[in-house]
Structure formats: C-alpha cells, structure tokens
C-alpha cells in the first residue's frame, strides 16, 4: 500500500522507515529536518538492527504529497489543530488514517474535523527518541496495536497489520476502546507523576508511598472502565503493568521529555478527556484529576515565567 | 498561674512572651539561642506592638525548670519523642499541658506517654516566624483556641483562656475534635500543596485547577468528619477558609518553611493520622492520601541526596 507519515519523529519515523525498508511506498512529511533528510537520508539506530533510508520520499509541505492508502499521524496531539491543513492532500476515498497518539478522545475530535474519513487508533509500545536531525534512536520494544474506530472496510486494517508484520513489527488488530484505556493504565500515572515529582519510572516504583499511589491511580481507571462497560481493563492488567515497569530500565515518559524540553504537555487527551468521561459515567478518578490539576498549575506557572522574560 | 513553655520558637515564644508581659510567671525552655536570650532578652516584633522581655526566666535544660500550672508545648510534632525527657520536671498533680501543635493525633500519642496528665489542644491562628536568635517576628493574626482533651478540672482551662485574654490575646475554649479538624481543613491542603508545587498560598488559589483541587481536598475532610460524627466542619466553613486565604498576603505555611530549610516535615500528624482515621471510618480522602504519598516521596528522595553527599 502507499503510506503517508504526518509527523516523522521518534514514532512516525520509526514505523514509516520500517515499512519503507520492507518495500512499501512511504511518503514522509518533515518539518525542521527536511533539508537534512533530503541530503543525508533517514537513519534508524535500533536495538533490532540499525539501517538508513538513503532517498526516502520526503516533503516539507503536505500539499505536495500524493493521496495515500494509509496515513500514519504521529504528531503530538497538542498539534492536532494543524490536521485540517496538513491531512486533506493525502486523503482519497477509502484512506485509513491511523492516529498513533497518546490519550483518550483523539479519534473523536479528529472525526469531527473529517466526518467521513476512516479512522483507527495506533497504540505504539515503543521506547524511541529523535535525538538529532534525520536520526531516530529506537531503544527497545516496538510493537503496535491497531484499534479500528470508524473504518467500515476491515480489509484495509487487516492489510495494514499484515504489512507491519512483513516489516518485522509485532502488530495486532485490537478492540478500540479496550486498547486505548489499557494504554491509559500505564500512561496516566507514569507520564504525569514523573513530571510532578521530577523523577523517572523506577523511582516512583521504588518508594512504597508512590508505588502504592501508582497502583491506586491505575485502579481508578479499572473502576472507571467498568462503569463505562469497557472490557479487558482489570486488576490483573494493573499488576502486569507494574511488574513490566519494574523490569524496564529507568524511563522518562514522553510527557516528562515534553516538560523538560519546554514543549506543551499532552494534558487534554492524557488527562482531561478520560477524567471527564469517567466522571460523566459516575465514577470519577480523584487521584488522576488531582494529578491533572498539579500539571496544569505547573504549566501555568511556567507560562508566567516565559511571559515575564520576553 | 505559673507557665512553662517547651519550645520557645515562633509560636511558643509569642504566647509565652505575651503572658509574661501581662504579669504572669513564665518559664521558657530554650535550645539554640539560650545564651543569646540570657544576655539580650527575648524580643517580639509584632503587628500588635513590639516589646522585649529584658530578663525572662530561661533554661537550657528542663530539669532546672519548676513545676508549672500550665505547660505550653510548642515543639514541632516531629520532636515529640523528646517529651518523655523534657516534660516531667514541669509536671505536678493538676498541671495542664497544652499542645500547640499542628495536626491530628498528637494528644492521643502524648497521652500514651503521660497517662494521667491533663491535656488540651492549642490551635494557634498566627503568622509568625523566628527570624534570628531571641527574636520572634509576629506578622499577623494571633488568636488561639483551647480544646480540652483530657482535663477533668475545667477551671484551669477557663483560667488559661482568661489569662490569655488579659494578655491581649483573642482566646476561646472550643470543642476539641471540631477544633482540630477545622484547623486541618486549612492545614492539609495548603501545607502540602505549597511544598509539592513549590509555591505559596496565593498562587494555589489563583490557578483555577488548583483552586478547585484545594476545595475538593477540603471537602474530603468535610465528608470524613461527617462519617466520624464530628460536627461543625461543613461546606460553609470550607468557603470561609478559601475566602480568608484569598484575603491573606501570600503565605508559606510551616511545612513549606520546614521543607525549604531542610527540616523534617510534620507528615505523621498532618497527613498520615487523619488520613488513616478517615479511612477507618469508611470515608477515605484520596486526594489528601495522594498528597501525602507525594510528600513522602520528596522527603525520601531528599534523604537519599543527603545520604550520598556525606
């Protein structure tokens, strides 16, 4: 199939490059490192084997991109307001748009921007970073789950999963809501708590007080999903997430990196929306709401600093 | 009456000095600034009028102190393990010991140390600091409520209130549990949140997210006290605390000062005990429990830093 990648960063760059290496036609939208990639190609330093695309199809402007069968959107969700400008050139009837983004509620909002378009969620389980122009550093993991949100032709979702597998990626088709909320079980505690307490995942789990708190926050999600009749998010999964994270090397989640580098945090989709949905279902998540309030405070205070220094 | 003051700091120094100025016999236990006060007296710089006690009764060792009618204990509650050594010389049958300390549960624990002794809580509403040796800086407020905990002779409690009033202090006798928990309504959100977010009271109330969070934390106490059948802690009181704090100049609560100066925080009585009591009563306070977990994490991390630097 012909693929487009909107947001060629640590995640979009990785999956797109792997698909291209395995022979798919992949068109990359680049921003800051467009010139660099034109000259030097796109490198992937990877625990699964490093490689370089010498001459990928790259663009600085999505208006120059062709219509695609599948578009992987791997922008930060804080940039989704750019989609009405970026996405239309890549769409033709039947295009599947896969939102490889964090949080809950992105499909709902993007669907409102593009009412007729087929959407799926891409849940990436990957530790990767874009450390310099044209260079993706893939440290570990790398699987991706695809959850169909509004695509009526399941063929294309299955074909996407097949072609990802052909590219050596562990890919699966999963139930949309369950997948998004299972990912939230990890994302909601670890993203925000590492920012609020200025630490990494390992420190949170080493202290008995915060280890217990992380579990309680995860259990808030278990109870909320139960109230929303979403299956597959249970206490066993919580324990699995904690044990899995125990086994990880100390990790700074994406929100911690966003905070450290002065970028906006993905508060809307990682906290506000799921907290509101849980509350609307009669099962609020007080600890996660509190975490959101703390993060909003921190972002507001930093905004003041920035304002006063200019 | 004859008074003893254990802990001549910002609070004990203030009330003791005011009682002494009004003619009461007050014996002060001093620690670091004993020598200084022997030579230069005890100064109170106060919004209500500054003064100095030229030759107060001061002691470096409580063994030298006489038995007293009333002992004001104004140590940090983190130093209460010192009471079995400090307090006995000041006790005679009938001595009233007033714990002018923050939190919930101090009387219970001190009563276990001194089973027969008459105890009362002293709830001080005061902004004061000990800025240098022998010098109390009283910025504003200054009232004190006395809540009888285990004193069978109410005479002495009333006489204490009278003599405080004669000293120009706004003093009242109040119901013990209600008073302690009403104070917790302010103390629990503001002490910890100013540490967790590195801010003062005004910033917490200016941000909509944390203003709402502070109110929700206060409401957790309202609900918990209801479950414990403690009266007088209601939503109106919560609103009053918020409006009162809005009107205050930006303030760093005692826990924030403790944190900033590298002193241990009063986590046990300000968080652990009230949270446990609420949970035992079937009405846990999740946001305040989370705040405690964050503070314990911060204290633990700082402990590690200290450990590694020595």
Features:
20% strand, 2 domains, globular, ten-stranded mixed beta sheet, N-(1-d-carboxylethyl)-l-norvaline Dehydrogenase, domain 2, homodimer, Rossmann fold, 310 residues
Q: Your description of this structure?
A:
The structure is a homodimer of 310-residue chains. With 310 residues, chain A is α/β, with parallel strands linked by helices. Chain A has two domains: 2-174, Rossmann fold (3-Layer(aba) Sandwich); 178-309, N-(1-d-carboxylethyl)-l-norvaline Dehydrogenase, domain 2. Chain A contains twelve helices and ten strands. In chain A, strands 1, 2, 3, 4, 5, 6, 7, 8, 9 and 10 form a ten-stranded mixed beta sheet that branches. The longest helix of chain A has 24 residues, at 286-309. The first copy, chain A, is globular and about 50 Å long. The A-B interface holds A 196-197, 199, 203-204, 207, 209-210, 212-213, 216, 286-287, 289-294, 296-298, 300-301 and B 196-197, 199, 203-204, 207, 209-210, 212-213, 216, 286-287, 289-294, 296-298, 300-301.
- What is the CATH C-level name of the largest domain in chain A? Alpha Beta
Q: How does the helix and strand content of chain A classify structurally?
A: alpha/beta
Helix content of chain A: 40-55%
Main beta sheet of chain A: 10 strands, mixed
> In CATH terms, what is the fold-level topology of the largest domain in chain A?
Rossmann fold
